[in-house]
Amino acid sequence: MDFHSNEGKNNPSLRQSNWYNNMKPEVQEWLHQAEYDYEDAEYLIPGERYPKAVFCCHLAVEKGLKALYLHHFNNQPPRTHNLDFLIQAIPGGIPERFEDLMDLLEDISVKVRYPPVLDLLLHEITADVAKKIFEDTGEFLTWIRESNL
Predict the structure, then answer these.
(1) Helices in 74-126 by DSSP H: which ranges?
(2) What domains, with CATH codes, occur in the chain?
(3) Structure pTM?
(4) Residues 110-121 pLDDT 10s
(5) For 28-54, what is each residue's pLDDT tens digit?
(6) 3-state class of 15 per DSSP?
(7) Closest CA to 65 of 95, 44, 41
């Protein structure tokens, strides 16, 4: 996959749909930021900045979850990076197929944020791992889009 081309993107722009334009502006903003972080991950992968790309995937998922939270509770989401906390707060949670992705992102994002494990991450997060997480993140954002907020 050519990560810099618009062809075959896993997550076509959320902003291109009528559904997006009909939602609350605050929810739109969270989804817009989620999409932006997802696109950042896409651009980091060819530069072999795999830990940072995965971190951007975490940000995208986190902001997607916060959009769901805001949609359901009509209230700003809590200031947390804990995906599990956000998932548990959302009525119905998320599909089981995304549980492994959430566990991976929770583990890696803490390691990326705080030293001294960067050198370990550079060996742990290979191109294949980063691309898989990127693809799964795209599927997760697509699931949010298909949730018809």
Answers:
(1) 83-89, 99-113, 118-124
(2) 26-146 (1.20.120.330)
(3) 0.86
(4) 888 776 677 888
(5) 999 999 999 999 999 999 999 999 999
(6) helix
(7) 95
